[in-house]
Amino acid sequence: MLRWILGGREANSSVEKSPVLCIGEEQPKNWFTELQVLRGHFDIVRFLVQIDDFRCASAGDDGLILVWNIETGERLQELRGHSRQITAITTLNCNDGLMSHTFLITASSDRSVSLWDPDTGNRVQTVSDLQSSVKCLLVLERLCVWLSGGEELCVWNKDFQLQCHRQNHSDTGISALIELPKNCIAAAMDKEIIIYRLTFSTDSSMSLSEVYCLTDHQDQIRALINVVDGVFASGSHAGELILWDAVDWNILAYEHILWEESQPCAQAEIRLKAPRHSEMSIQHLTTNGKLILAAVGSGLYVYSLLTRTVVAYRKVAHDSNVLHTMLLSDSELMSCSEDGSVRMWEIQDLPLPDEHASAGFFGMWTFSRTNKQTGPPTKKVIEVPNIRTLELTGDLIGHSGAVQMFLSFRENGLVTCSADHLLILWKNGERQSHLRSLALFKKLEENGGL
Amino acid sequence: MIGSPDVVAFTKEDEFGQTSPEPWSLPEEFSIPLNPLADSNPWAKTSYAKFSKDFILISEFSEQVGPQPLLTIPDDPKVCGTFDLNYFSLRLMSVDYQASFVGHPPGSGYPRLSFVEDSRVVLGDSKEGAFAYVHHLTLYDLEARGFVRPFCMAYISADERKIMLQFQELSLRFSQASECLKAGNRRAFAKELQRKLQDLEYTHSVLQREEGLHREAGPQSMYSTHAVEKANELANVVKSIFEHRDLLRQISSYHGRPRRDPHAVTCQRCVTEALNECEQLLDNKPSSHTDKDRKQVDGEVHTGDEEQVEEDEGDGIKRKPSYIPQLIKAKSAKCFDKRLKTLQELCDETFYEATMELLKETERSFRGDLCYLHTRRLDKALRRRQRVTNFLFEEDLGDDADDEKGVLRPFCAVNHAAEDYRLVNPPPIVLEPLPLELDCLDPADPLDPASETSHTRESELGFEESLMDSSASEQTLETQESSEETKGSFSSDKSGKCLLEKQPSVASVRSEPPDPDSDLTPDADHNTDLERESSSEDMETTAGEDEGDQTPVSLLEVVSELDVGKDDDGEKVSSKEYERESDLLVPIDTSCCMAQEGFLYEASPPEPNSHLRPNSCSQTSQASVVNQEPHSLLPLQDDYFVGSVCSESPAARQELSTGHLGDTVSRASLDDGSDCTMSASTGSDRAASPLGYGGVVTLHHRKKAGQGALRFVRQYPFAIPALWCILSGRTLVVLGADEGRVRRLVAALALFVPCPGKYGKRVQAWLSFPFALTDLQQWKLIGLQRVASPAGSSMLYSLSRYSRYISILDADQKTLRCPPYRGQLLANIADHRTYIRRGSTYFLHLQSTFCRLAAKAFLFTFTHHFHLPLSSAEGPEVVEGRRRCFLQEQLGLSEEDSQILLYLSQLITQQYLQPSTGGSAAAAPCFSFNYTTSVLYKI
Hints:
heterodimer, A: mainly beta, B: Rossmann fold, 6-stranded antiparallel sheet, 13 strands, disordered N terminus, WD40_repeat_CS (chain A), WD40_PAC1 (chain A), repeat (chain A), WD repeat domain 41 (chain A), WD40/YVTN_repeat-like_dom_sf (chain A)
């Protein structure tokens, strides 16, 4: 009746016998041995944002923003005000000389944007009756303004006064915003990336002008991130990963991830029936400056900026689409997925590299600046001798719905939020036990004995 | 009646007692409990009791029929068996030491209510084999003679020592009940008075009108006999009104009066409420009244006040629309024709109910023999000091935790919140040497239930000594305030007489010369028998007298008959008449008392202690006389440290103590897993609600579960890893298709769940839907329904999904899937070849093992350097190494066994850091786990 999958770690894991990867119960590298379930939301929790070292805010489809103390698991504040789901959340730092104070900006599909003080739970500012709901928010600390992107792009100052705005003609609206050098902003809009420039006129009024339009993606852009100074990356639904020069907006690298199965594996056949696009759609991009981690369908894909090559990948890292990823270090990464699990990976050198030479089924096109948009891409199967493998080192199972996002507080723990309305705080049991012992002896001392 | 040898009153020891070298001056370690030699079979003396178990009897001294039993608690005819309640009521009521002063002191014109303090007495009836704690109280009844109705509540047991040793507790509880009853009675009395006043006012108005008519009709100068009669009647009514208002004032002044009774603690809110009520009554009434009164005073024969009267009447109706005043007939029923109010009618309904509840509770809490009570109390006291760890495996102490800690929580019938109780330190006038506080307990003989040597420790001072000086001759019943004194002095006499060999009172030892009758003492058996016979005969005669109380009654009747001639207002006696009545009554009472005293002094002379000492053993064997002073039952060590090794389980001790008492009990008990150590009466009341239904898990349940646990251990070879899972905090899911089997398994295994919580919240006996992570966090033992239908697949999914957090015991296929266990710790308690055959024994075995575990966990938790570095130079590895060293080498625990200890330690830490489980509502509990592979155990 019960199928106990005692998944030992497979050494040759890049060639997967089973599409479902299971690590089993013995996970010596997994130090999350304690958890705390945080209840409070009534609907899918989609966003987590870190406020400071010990606080985070969660927001989701119930329109609630909850502020948590991740050390104790206490719910510190409950920010109510939005009547519909939250579509974007970000933090806003206000530096008034000595003290830096963090505020939260939230956008909701009730077409309002609010500024909250997470210390008091007050709604400091709010703008309602926007023309459209805001899909993304971007704070430009340097310029003391923040931008809201939806069907229109608006620029606000910190007092929530509209500085300027720009109507878009696209139906889809802006799905992502990043800051570029020289007061430029890149906005992802369907298949295009539009570069805007923010100019300050003499009377300190601002204006927003469209500078350039990058139309190299074949499909809808799903992810847009800054990688390092001067480089940003975008990923599309069709599995294209493009590295751009942030100054002159040229393509630095073009990587097309094709998970096309050619192996006549029975399980793979079944899997092929799944929509192809979602299999290679780049859901999420993350970087630590050296590596770019792309969540491609249910797989993971590590791209090195240095070598401009794929370092490691795993085609089926999860049972379902990967929703959020994070690079913990140069060799450790973490991903969460619709299958309700969070997995921790390690980039390991392959014991037998030659075994995997033919394993990759992806195409890579490298474009020089000159042959951009021209010429048929020369497909070459990469034969990288130093390709490494992504090894599953642990998984966190607790959520019964898709894990939307997670937020790491390093040694203090990890917060995951999920479609099952819960947040789970994963902690190091040993560390917690040590902290409890400290508290115990402190209390003992205060009480003067038992 | 006073001198009855079976009656024992209580004295405190006096300073003279301390001077003589007594056994208690021995160092503690040498003091041996006195062994009742001739009484080696503790069950012998109870053999002739005619009732099966202890019960509470409420009797009254009816002015119509004399002493009569009213009700018993429990209200079951089987309880009393062939025991003659009527006879015993007579005995009970005959030892009423309340100074029931009736009538009014010479100075005042109005009848006075006597405010009597309750009296407490222990009475033994050797013939019936019954001993009783008797609590006398007086209730007020407007229609009763002297407005008082004497009642008594008695706790009747066949075991005198039980009564004696529980005296303080009994006294406390009965005082609560009595206070409650009296509070209700005062309310009812005030209400009755109010109605009566309304009646009287109405009567008054009617009479006035009639008189006015008469006067108008007749010529001014001459009065018809009828008019004179009317005028007299009117005057009587007026007087009656005054009297009743005075009574109302008296009853409302009740609370203001200083109480002598240390146990008489009343709920402050009740008191203030009652006061307000009374004040309202007083204010309301006379406000309309006084002007009327004034008018009456102005001119008693004044006429033409019809309007005024009408107005008053209107007022009266307006004020109390619920009650329509009635015309009081001049000639009312004779007091012996009328039906006396029952106890219920005398009290406010809620108060009556509350009292009954209280008494039932009392009866329940005193079930079981002395040994059981004692061990239970010892155990409670020990566990109370062990708050840090006792939540792990001990059942909840319940809410009776604080009533033995010197806090006299006033019982409140109306359930006024507990917040307004105050800490009442029993004043030094306690009738018992040992105060209730645990901390003041005798450090000696913590395990000796009898500890006879310890009870004379405290010298009581002041008050009582002066009483001793005042000696028995001062037994005149002067004022109602003297009730306590009277009691005291009676007591002192009694103590002399009644073999209180430990407590030679001044009165008996010093001031009383040896009686001539003391010659009889050598033939102690015979003597006491004789005495007993005679005393009970006395009782009978007294009772006869009482029953044939006709003497005063008939006189009264005569008097009232005589009075009738003068005025028709027979019921509402004029003050003159009243005086006469009380004149008649009081002397009779006193003479009766005197006669009895005299008689008693002659018939059963106090035997000097010098004679008694040598044959105290034979005396004891008689068991007719209570030969010990009551003392508190808790001789505990002062410095009992939390978590010390002697923290045994209650049950274990209980078993032990019965064990050394003899095989009789244990043989009598059946091995059905039920509580074998108690008599059938104990514990049987607890509703046997199965585990996991949200009911309070009691010791009884746990013992019952012992049988199931034993069966499990014998039946399943993988019991050890299963128990290890539970003990180390890994949730165990019992999977099965048959609900009954799963429930039984869960109930058995629930015994092993650490920190089960008061309502077994850690256990879910039967679950038929898939569980989630939060459920795993809450429940440590889950009974899960195996469903074959597609619905079951989601359940299987959750099982496999969360398989790293759970162990699964398949009840149908008899498999267990859990991490492998290689420890030795649990072999002791889960040996399937165990020689233990009975569930309760196994339970005790478990308890002792758990206690040891808890002690180890305590030690581990609170040893600083197992968790924290000694110096900043030490890294976490050093601490870790030290911890491992302690667990493995010093405690000899394997890796898996250490997990048990770590889990228990974690629970202790959590409990210590947030005693109110859960802490702040926001912080969710933590859930620890580890990543280990599981193996499948098969049968």
